[in-house]
Amino acid sequence: MTATLNRLLIAYFCAILYVPFTTTAQVTKPANESYEQPKTNNPTDANRSNEINKGTARNGTYDKIAQPQREFLPYKYIREADVFWQKRVWRVIDTRQKMNHTFTYSKQPFIAVLLDIIQKHPDASIFIDDEFTMPTTYAEVSKQIGGADSVKVVNPDTGEEIWKVVTNDFDWASVKRFRLKEDWIFDQSDSRMVVRILGIAPIREVYDKNGEYRGDQAMFWLYYPSFRQYLIKYETFNPFNDSNRLTWDDLLEMRMFSSYIMKESNVQDRRIQDYKNGRDALLESEAIKRKMLDFYENLWSY
């Protein structure tokens, strides 16, 4: 009996001493550890990884597969009979304001995103006017923003001066403002105020050959509803978290930008700058904004 008890005690202590070593051996990382995706038996995962990493090295520690698969949320259909009140306004987004610095992200500014969409997707509608009556194309926009000049150069073989046509690259920094055309609607079926962006126009500064400022020019007007399906595929810069970036559709729909009203629908069809200047124009813009909000608040009684 005593011998049997001794053998059991010896086996028990050996098991206690053996478990920590085996546990340590199991959690020890292999020497050839890397950030590569582990092999799985799912062929879909393997194919996705090969497609993402094809031809280049992955710029990160994991595959970002969620962003290309995002889809925009379609608007709720609004019946004409449910529109109790409507106001159309035009806004200006000044990219020099701190809240709007995302629009000038050096690696992918907003104007570059728009031009890329126009070039790749002909069904993305762009127009010359804000009434969306005169359509235009990417080729016509390219002639406007690029242009060509004739300059004198020296022929290295003959030493003679000759004229050469050179193409000017587009400077995205010349686009410092964007105009928005939008409708504010009170939908009585839901009893809420709805804001729908109709169009966006990049505004670039125009200079003559002597470098003197000539004025601002609307490059084109994009029809925003036809761009939403593509804007959802482009990420914006998030200064707080690189792993959780919004898309351009998210930023515009959540209205995460600073702007001021430059025009409201009126009988003279005039802008604020036509009858107000400087500080008075900003106060008039705030007065129009306050008037729309007061209308919504006065619909309720407490």
What general form does the structure show?
flat
Low-confidence stretches: 16-35
Based on CA atoms alone, the radius of gyration comes out at 30 Å
Q: Count the strands?
A: 9
**What is the strand content?**
15-25%
Major sheet, described briefly?
7 strands, antiparallel
Question: What order do the helices and strands follow?
Answer: HHEHEHEEEEEEHHEH
Mean pLDDT over all positions: 81
Distance between the termini: 88 Å
Tally of contiguous helical segments: 7
Task: Estimate the helix proportion, in percent.
Answer: 25-40%
Structural class: alpha+beta
Q: What does this 3D model show about the protein?
A:
This protein is an alpha+beta fold. The chain has a domain at 80-145 and 172-297. 29% of the residues lie in helices and 24% in strands. It has 7 helices and 9 strands; from the N terminus they run H-H-E-H-E-H-E-E-E-E-E-E-H-H-E-H. It has helices at residues 2-27, 43-53, 110-120, 138-145, 224-231, 248-253, 279-297; strands at 83-94, 126-127, 148-154, 161-167, 175-187, 192-207, 213-218, 221-223, 260-264. The strands form 2 sheets. Strands 1, 2, 5, 6, 7, 8 and 9 form a 7-stranded antiparallel beta sheet that branches. It has a two-stranded antiparallel sheet with strand order 3-4. A hairpin with a 4-residue loop joins strand 5 and strand 6 (192-207). The longest helix has 26 residues, at 2-27. The radius of gyration is 30 Å and the shape is flat. The N and C termini lie far apart (88 Å). The model is unreliable at 16-35 (pLDDT under 50).
